[in-house]
Specification:
This protein is 37% helix and 29% strand. The protein has 262 residues and is α+β, with helices and mostly antiparallel strands. It folds into two domains: 78 residues, Arc Repressor Mutant, subunit A; 167 residues, Alpha-D-Glucose-1,6-Bisphosphate, Chain A, domain 4. The strands form three sheets. Strands 4-12-11-8-7-6-5 form a seven-stranded antiparallel β-sheet. It starts with a helix and ends with a helix.
Length: 262
């Protein structure tokens, strides 16, 4: 059962999940700053910056105040204390190394073109893998509720199709792509920039390549997902559209579904 500290940690880690928000925190280490000052180093709109700042406030990492006509932001003292306590408690349980092929995802977390989500799923790795690669199971978790997957086709092989249709608020949003790499019970990578037959996709509104990695963990399975984009601006737009929250909720749905398969 979730406790208040669990919800506090969820908000904090989700706030840290985007590289642009970590950059803002680094800016604020120099002292309080006005919104326009925080915006100037970034290639994003004021609207997108405000979305990131709201997420940082929700996570308890920053606080804001109105001074005249401007709003200033500052680091919130002691905001990392809950996360540090939790990490110290988990340190003895966290495996130092994972078996399998080396992962690029930790390096991607420092890449401004990539967005990442990490969760510990309380389900065994074989069950999680089934949910990633079996269409009838993928349909049940891939879209964060209340959105739903109404169509899915996945061919779990390099060059296979990765196709979904997500329905939300009366609109159907098809997404077509290609599986680039699959390592059994370890890694699945696909992109919406290529189609079957390795044909380049035309007119993709939000191009990215996604990788999901899973590995054994003392509590079940560690799940790491990353979406890499052609440039920082596209990554920031994806984040502003709700990447961290949406992909995080979907991962949690995956964990609950996989737990029922054991």
């Amino acid at each position: 059962m979730s406790t208040p500290i669990d919800y506090e940690l969820d908000d904090l880690f989700q706030a840290l999940a985007a590289s642009v928000r970590r950059d803002v925190l680094a800016q604020l280490r120099q002292g309080p700053a006005a919104t326009n000052d925080l915006l100037s180093p970034h290639t994003m709109t004021p609207h997108n910056l405000m979305a990131h700042l709201r997420r940082l406030e929700t996570g308890g990492l920053v606080e804001s105040s109105k001074q005249g006509r401007e709003r200033f932001y500052a680091l919130r003292p002691g905001s990392f204390a809950p996360a540090l306590r939790w990490m110290r408690q988990q340190e003895e349980l966290w495996p130092e190394e994972q078996e399998g092929e080396p992962s690029d995802l930790p390096r991607w977390a420092e890449d401004s073109t990539a967005l990442t989500v990490t969760r510990v799923l309380r389900a065994p790795r074989p069950a999680v893998w089934r949910c990633l690669t079996e269409p009838d199971l993928l349909r049940q978790w891939f879209a964060p509720r209340p959105a739903e997957v109404t169509g899915v086709e996945i061919e779990p092989r390099a060059g296979g199709r990765f196709y979904t249709v997500i329905r939300y608020m009366g609109q159907s949003m098809p997404g077509d792509g290609l599986v680039l790499e699959i390592v059994e019970q370890q890694r699945l990578t696909w992109t919406n920039m290529l189609l079957t037959g390795w044909r380049p996709a035309a007119g993709v509104d939000l191009p990215f390549t996604a990788t999901i990695e899973i590995a054994d963990h003392v509590e079940g399975t560690i799940y790491r997902a990353a979406a890499r984009h052609p440039d920082t601006a596209t990554a920031e737009r994806h984040e502003a559209l709700g990447f961290s929250q949406g992909w995080g909720l979907a991962a949690e749905q995956l964990g609950r579904l996989a737990a029922t398969l054991t």
